[in-house]
Amino acid sequence: MTRVSRDPLAWLAELEGVSSALAATRDGIDVMLRDRGLRRTSPETTAESLARGAHASAVLEGSTSGLADLSEGRGDAVAQDALRLSAVLLGNAPLLGSAPLQALARLHAVAAATSLPEEQLGRPRDAASAALLRRVADLLLAPTEAPALLVAAVAHAEIATGEPFGSHNGMVARAVERLVLVARGVDSKSLVVPEAGHLALRPQYESNLRGYRDGGERGAHAWALYAAEAFAAGAEASPLRRGPA
């Protein structure tokens, strides 16, 4: 659903309610990080946020493992994939801003390391999938006045619905979304848990992804409005809000 233009997200940001909803969510995130995070943030808090995100993403991908399993390094195969991805995620933030195709390939290669043959790791399924990944990379590199939350949400939806890789597309999509928030300064210490926001709103998450895939401009509009709600739920899931897991 990404449109090619000088500012590829201007049209979506201008649709009714999108900018105001995302601005309100961003304000809430900023208040949470400023008032409750800056004096108390530690590497352990970031690690807890990443663990919560890995658990939520794994559950959305079909895992039945609990958060305690992941915290102890246990869990089913899907949970292990998500945990392994979370361990390398933040190290890819600089690459996402300079060479996003390489970052996407690395994320998939880590997530799918135990599931696919080596020659398929980080590789698009076919020519159409390669084109989709180039569109996502162009989106991440293009100058835009659209909110960073919108860039994150659209990159997520493009990967999750386009399924360019042989497996783990949803997991990679959610990882990219979190990474955009880090790379673009929304949440530089990765304390928001957007994956948990999607899990909390799972029926809406899944239906809005279908709408993004099949619903044209109307579906993209609905996804952008949903994303504002999901990011707000992700902020509520932060360790800064909820205390120790």
Summarize the structure.
By secondary structure, this protein is mainly α. It has helices spanning 10-13, 18-36, 43-60, 67-71, 77-89, 93-98, 100-111, 127-141, 148-162, 169-183, 194-200, 202-214, 216-236, 239-242. Helix 3 (43-60) runs parallel beside helix 11 (194-200), helix 5 packs antiparallel against helix 7 (100-111) and helix 7 (100-111) crosses helix 10 (169-183).
CATH evolutionary superfamily: Fido-like domain
Please give the share of residues in helix: 55-70%
The helix/strand order is: HHHHHHHHHHHHHH
Q: Which structural class fits the helix and strand makeup? A: mainly alpha
Q: What's the overall geometry?
A: globular
Overall pLDDT level = 93
Can you name the CATH architecture? Orthogonal Bundle
The count of helical stretches stands at: 14
Give me the count of strands. 0
What is the highest CATH level, the class?
Answer: Mainly Alpha
* Rg (CA only): 17 Å
Quote the beta fraction: under 5%
Do you know the CATH topology?
A: Fic-like fold
- Uncertain residue segments: none
When the domains are counted, the total is: 1
For the biggest sheet, the summary is: none
Termini Cα gap: 37 Å
Describe the structure.
This protein has 245 residues and is an all-alpha fold. It contains 14 helices and no strands. The chain has one domain: Orthogonal Bundle (Fic-like fold), CATH 1.10.3290.10. The protein has helices at residues 10-13, 18-36, 43-60, 67-71, 77-89, 93-98, 100-111, 127-141, 148-162, 169-183, 194-200, 202-214, 216-236, 239-242. α3 (43-60) packs antiparallel against α5, α9 (148-162) runs antiparallel to α10 and α12 (202-214) packs antiparallel against α13. The longest helix is centred in the last third of the chain and has 21 residues, at 216-236.
